[in-house]
Amino acid sequence: MSTLTAAPPWTASAGDATRLRRAFGAFATGVTVVTVGGASPRGMTANSFTSVSLDPALVLLCVGRDAGMYRSLAEADTFAVSVLAADQEDVARYFASRSRPAGARQFDAVGWLPGHRSAAPLIAGAAAHFECASWRTYDGGDHAVFLGRVLALDQAPEREPLVFHGGRFRQLSDRGPEV
Questions:
Q1: Residue ranges of the Flavin reductase like domain (predicted)?
Q2: Which CATH number belongs to the domain containing residue 64 in this structure?
Q3: How far apart are CA 106 and CA 176, in angstroms?
Q4: Among candidates 46, 42, 27, which has minimal Cα distance to 84?
């Protein structure tokens, strides 16, 4: 049985950046570290990541055009995404910090292993890893939308994912039945 309710009281336009960010924060997301390899490897915490297609296997991530990772991804043939586990909030905060060292030195503070297909660092202990070939890039306003074709993946089903909701890192409290 459905119940009709009055429309919500819209009090802010989509141009109100603070309210917009808060409203976007109502949607819980997973937390990832996106990486590229090569001569100057780089990592960045990102929660704008999702699956797009099963055939071909595609993933999507959004990166701000003002982020150092934007240029790295735009120039890379491959990249990797590590879906962080619930106990890796410190890793998420580290790769979100602009004060970490540049290049390969930024990975000295975390456990990682080299990707076999992407040569990008994979964060050790993550709930899942995706190694991707750069597929397409689209304009997304102040962000770029990167699509990657999945070349290889790994999952640790026993590892709970780290979640971001309402401006805070959180953990899932109920696994519920598998669908």
A1: 24-171
A2: 2.30.110.10
A3: 37
A4: 46
